[in-house]
Amino acid sequence: MKKSLNVLIITGLLLAVSVTACGCQSTSQTTSNSSDIVQSSEVETTPSSDKSETKLDIPEEIMPTLDINQNGGGDELSAFYGAQEISRLGLFSIKFENLVKESCTEEEFQEYMSWSEENDNPVDNKDRPYNINEMPNLPNVVKKYSLDHDKVAEILKDLQKYYTELSSESENAEYADMIYTDEEIEAIASGNVEKCFNLFTYNTAILKNDLIYTPAYIYNNTMNKLEEAGITAEEIAARTEIYSSFSLTDEQMTALQNKMLKYVALQAEKGNFSGTYEIPATATFSVPEKIGNATFVTQT
Amino acid sequence: MKNILKTVLIFAIMFNCTIFANYSVYAECSHVFGEYIITQNAGCTTTGSKYRVCKKCGYKSTVMIYPRGHNTKSKVVSPKCTVKGYTLAYCTVSGCDYTAKYNYTDALGHNTKDTCVTPPDCTTQGKRKIYCTRCSFVKYVPIPAHGHIYNSVNENICIKCGYKKPTTNWSYMFKSPYMATHISQRFPKYDDGTEHHGVDIIDASGNVDGYPVYASYSGTVLDSFYDRTNGRGVFVRIKQDNGYVVRYLHMKNGSVNLVEGDKVKAGDYIGKVGCTGEAYGSHLHYDVNKSLNSSDYTQPLDFFKNINFTYSY
Q: How far is CA B69 from CA A41, A200, A212, A215, B94, in A?
């Protein structure tokens, strides 16, 4: 009797367990089957909020407006707005101006005057790069108006001699900077625009193909635009110290330094920068000391 | 012991009966469900629920309704004078207040016009009204007295008010580079605090474009260029006989004929006022460097103590 009771109890418990399990399964299947269509369509419209936890949040720096002095300017920010390296190519001596005048028709000369006046203010280039083939510069003008090679060379050689003598009398480096090299004279007189621009070393502005990106361009354009232009983190990092010397307001300088830091950090995160970046002391944006293979050190 | 076993047996039988009863009803039923009845509507970001009942066995199947997600539309909000523009995304579902802003565009800045309300005279301030043509921005700015105006550097009677200039010993001072006497930008800083190597001279009462510019001292022309990359425009640099190096910037295109090495005397014509290079309105930028040896600029107005300059700020 005891044995049969035990068997009965065990059988009963086993049945209870198995039936319960079956019941649950069938209920859940029914539920999921019946709601599959409804759910799938509704899930699709739910916005996704997936984000990698390790990705740095680097927002675009809001740059203070660059105030244009209403009544004038000088050359105090020429290295910021312009391309300091090529300043010799934008200096048109009065003798050169006279040569253009005598080499052109009246109509061509008027066109030259308008073209050059419209493009003589580097502040206008803050939103766009300087196009070496479109802007009024010496080799471009020689090429466009087919100026006589020898006459151009003569004018430039006179200036070369003049500034060589002047710079020997003066300790002011500005005069030495105005001495054309023989190679530059030949390239200008030949109207070889590309060669001319490639003769200079760019420490402040950045030359990419036919375009020169000025510090003002870097100041005024988004990180995406800088990336599109092919400006590398190395190029930005190499210019941090030079850019710190511009006569900008404190607010503008901090924003510029933050922007450069953010750009380098962003590139480091993408694996495009692996050096050491010295963060200027006045930059206010913070980044980790290590991003990818790059190291970020605050200047003291 | 028997009693315990009995109790367990009875419990087991009862429990199994219940399970079997339900199972036999639900599991064997090929459900025929009615329509879903929504107990709680799903919101854009909140879940809802609904159920349906089998017509044959009464089985109730309850399911969760997933959030619908926002039904977004977007519109472009144009920038205003001082407020950035942006694209506004918003949810069209009634009661949902979701919005997001992106694609910011720069504020337009004021489109200002400038009118003179009260003109200044030689010694009394005037007033001008600066207003925006797009918004209600209005600002009144004093116009400094323009100072006395003389027909030429050699005349002593103001053509506006008849004021007679005291006799001055010119031998230790520079001559005025031209007739205007209003300083719109001072040395050594602009009003925003950035560097300014010289002074910008205009005439508060009118346009100075084309005014003749004179050499302020005798000397030799160092160089003259039309600078098209650094913002100086048409400029002349003169090494004066007293050792100072002065520059005249932003002059009119085509107005300068001096070249390096040319000699000038104080008061000689050197060109015309213009707005070439980085200039916003015609003016003369005039600066004085202490020597040929460095970029050591000094206060130009120290050399014009006989002239009553007026100032914009």
A: 11, 57, 47, 44, 13
Confidence of residue B20 (pLDDT cuts 50, 70, 90): very low
Q: Which residues of B touch A116 (CB under 8 A)?
A: 226, 228, 253
Residues of A with Cβ-Cβ distance to B109 under 8 angstroms: 65
pTM assigned to the model: 0.62
Say if the Cβ atoms of B229 and A172 lie within 8 Å: no
CB of B49 within 8 Å of any CB in chain A?
A: no
**Looking at the domain that runs over B148-311, which CATH code has it been given?**
2.70.70.10
| B255 contact partners, CB below 8 Å, separation of at least 6 | B234, B271, B272, B274
Contact between B285 and B249 (Cβ < 8 Å): yes
Whether residue A10 has pLDDT greater than 60: no
Distance from CA of A259 to the nearest CA of B (A): 17
Which 8-state DSSP code applies to residue A93?
E
Distance, CA of A20 to CA of A116 (rounded, Å) = 91
Helix (H, G, I), strand (E, B) or coil at B247: strand
Tokens at residue A120, please? 């003589």
- Between residues 234 and 293 of chain B, which touch chain A (CB distance below 8 Å)? 249-250, 253-254, 256-260, 276-281, 283, 285, 287, 292-293
Dihedral Cα A26, A32, A37, A38, nearest 10 deg? 130
Inter-chain residue contact B228 with A72, CB threshold 8 Å: no
> How many whole angstroms separate alpha carbon B271 and alpha carbon B288?
18
Identify the top-confidence range among A1-10, B114-123, B153-162: B114-123
